């Protein structure tokens, strides 16, 4: 089944050219089914690139998904036309009375700032608190995962001296969890961040469960015991050339970045990067939508309570 997006969103043309099934709002309006309602809070600078990455994965599921895009403020963006933001993005005040099956909060290029120094930190806190009452499941990506650990569970991150960038091997540490169905024992995922969480603190927290981790970069998949919050400490949504673009951008800015590990052929940035995480990324989003959104959400979002999510039992 497709992901439903606004008729003229740029991602629609890109995904259609990639032979990915998307459905316009006009066509979807004629179908009598209960689609999943997913909200994306996009904090990345290049909104169009990030929304396309996420929609690409959301479309790889048998469920029909209706997507709303939300911005954190209405200020002009350096990397995205204001016309695009005004046409396709909504402010929090516009949706704060609604319920959603799922919420995705993206990463943000704020890894070296203390959370309290982020200009919109108060709004992020407000949205995270709102999500615990209005969303069946919340997916936190990279910086958002660290922010969620800090605000919701009082867990602090550690800022590193160098950016951790590359594609790293991870292994599942839980065997009978719906989110990991179909996963290989070991799999790869991209990372691009300046901070890390303590694996031991995450393992010891009574409200959290570590599902997958890496010997090189620590925890990767962490879920709350009530299954409401899923934390992905990485960037499964990245395309094959995203890390290369970031590396070249940082070089041009004079930042002397370290070469992304396990990424370029023969560790040579003049050669093509190797994409080896896309199957994992698609399976991750598909399992999240199926087992933690679709299987748990009420049929009528507006009149039925979304409280008291029943934790999955080991199978």
TrEMBL record:
What is an annotated GO biological process for this record, any one? L-methionine biosynthetic process from homoserine via O-succinyl-L-homoserine and cystathionine
Any one Gene Ontology molecular-function term assigned to this protein's record: homoserine O-succinyltransferase activity
Enzyme class, broadest EC rank = transferase
Q: Which Gene3D superfamilies does this UniProt record tie to the protein?
A: 3.40.50.880
Record InterPro entries: Class_I_gatase-like, HST_MetA, MetA_family
- Spell out the catalytic residues: 142, 235, 237
Q: Does the keyword Aminoacyl-tRNA synthetase apply?
A: no
Instruction: Return the GO cellular component terms, semicolon-separated.
Output: cytoplasm
According to UniProt, this protein's pathway is: Amino-acid biosynthesis; L-methionine biosynthesis via de novo pathway; O-succinyl-L-homoserine from L-homoserine: step 1/1
Swiss-Prot/TrEMBL site (Important for substrate specificity) positions: 192
Q: Give the chief site where it resides.
A: cytoplasm
Instruction: From the UniProt annotation, give the residues forming the signal peptide.
Output: none
Q: Name one Pfam family in it.
A: HTS
Alphabetized UniProt keyword annotations: Acyltransferase, Amino-acid biosynthesis, Cytoplasm, Methionine biosynthesis, Transferase
Question: Which residues does the record give as substrate binding sites?
Answer: 163, 192, 249
Q: Which reaction does it catalyse?
A: L-homoserine + succinyl-CoA = O-succinyl-L-homoserine + CoA
| Protein localization | Cytoplasm
The text of the family note is: Belongs to the MetA family.
Function statement: Transfers a succinyl group from succinyl-CoA to L-homoserine, forming succinyl-L-homoserine.
Write down what this protein is called: Homoserine O-succinyltransferase
Record gene name: metA
């Amino acid at each position: 089944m497709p992901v439903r997006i606004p008729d003229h969103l740029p991602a629609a043309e890109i995904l259609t050219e990639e032979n990915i099934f998307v459905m316009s709002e006009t066509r979807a309006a004629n179908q009598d089914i209960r689609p999943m309602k997913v909200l994306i809070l996009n904090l990345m600078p290049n909104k169009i690139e990030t929304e396309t990455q996420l929609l690409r994965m959301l479309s790889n599921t048998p469920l029909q998904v209706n997507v709303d895009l939300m911005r954190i403020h209405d200020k002009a963006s350096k990397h995205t036309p204001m016309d695009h933001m005004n046409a396709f993005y909504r402010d929090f005040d516009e949706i704060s009375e609604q319920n959603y099956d799922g919420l995705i909060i993206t990463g943000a290029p704020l890894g070296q700032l203390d959370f309290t120094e982020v200009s919109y930190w108060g709004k992020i806190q407000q949205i995270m608190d709102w999500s615990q009452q209005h969303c069946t499941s919340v997916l936190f990506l990279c910086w958002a995962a660290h922010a969620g650990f800090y605000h919701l569970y009082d867990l602090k991150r550690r800022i590193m001296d160098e950016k951790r960038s590359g594609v790293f091997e991870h292994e599942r540490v839980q065997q009978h969890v719906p989110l990991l169905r179909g996963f290989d024992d070991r799999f790869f995922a991209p990372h691009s961040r300046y901070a890390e969480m303590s694996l031991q603190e995450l393992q010891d927290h009574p409200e959290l469960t570590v599902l997958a981790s890496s010997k090189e970069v620590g925890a990767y998949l962490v879920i709350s015991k009530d299954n409401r919050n899923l934390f992905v400490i990485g960037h499964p949504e990245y395309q094959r050339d995203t890390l290369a673009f970031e590396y070249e951008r940082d070089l041009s800015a004079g930042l002397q970045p370290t070469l992304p590990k396990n990424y370029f052929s023969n560790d040579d940035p003049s050669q093509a990067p190797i994409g080896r995480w896309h199957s994992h990324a698609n399976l991750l989003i598909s399992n999240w939508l199926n087992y933690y959104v679709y299987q748990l959400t009420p049929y009528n979002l507006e009149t039925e309570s979304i409280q008291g999510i029943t934790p999955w039992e080991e199978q």
